[in-house]
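Morning!

This is the sequence you dropped in the shared folder:
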Amino acid sequence: LSLDAAGPYFFGAEGWKLAPEHFAERHGLIVIVALGESIVAIGAGVETAVTIGVIAAAIVGVGIAATQWWIYFDLSQIASARRLASIEDTRERNELARDSYSYIHFLLVAGIVLVALGMKKTIGDVGEPLKVVPAFALAGGAALYLLGLVAFRWRHIRNLAHRRAIAGGLCLAFFPAALELPALVSATVIFLIMTVMVILDTRAYGERRYQLRHGLMAAPGERTAEQATTGPAG
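The structure's back. Tokens below.
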């Protein structure tokens, strides 16, 4: 698997014939599938009677999945796909697709899967602290997902998504506490961290968010037709 995945990095990406919009859309669907499976895992974790605590944990788990969806699909996926499609140079476009989608998306999917594991164990016993592996899966998985998105943005436009980096650091720093607090409390804290980050992101983008989503302005790093003929984007 490592040799297969690393091949395009060591032997070049010049020979690919890439359809940028289709390529980005396919990877977006992979993220959707992973999120869907994470919600299935929440239901699979119910091994006892359905109590108020179990219902609350299920709501929190779906809420975490919703924030993961929002963080990726609200702007990141749109802006990144447009940036990829705007690149005229075949080698540059293929290398960006390789790094951002074929490689960095591994981090996003792994983060979703780990959070799902943590939530499955949370549902299993909401009142007890999580053991080391599920506690790290919950906190570390959320951190991995957010930091993967930081890497995703950095590779596209060399800009640090500082709110996501801070939120990822907070999730990871919460890991020791997750070993002591009831599982439901730990999951709720992760949900709140991600929700606050979504709110701050949405408020910070303001009118630009509407314009980007409706194609009324260029995405960060996106090249216009004029830029494509005159030189690299600033």
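Headline: DSSP finds ten helices and no strands in the chain.

More detail when I'm at my desk.
O.
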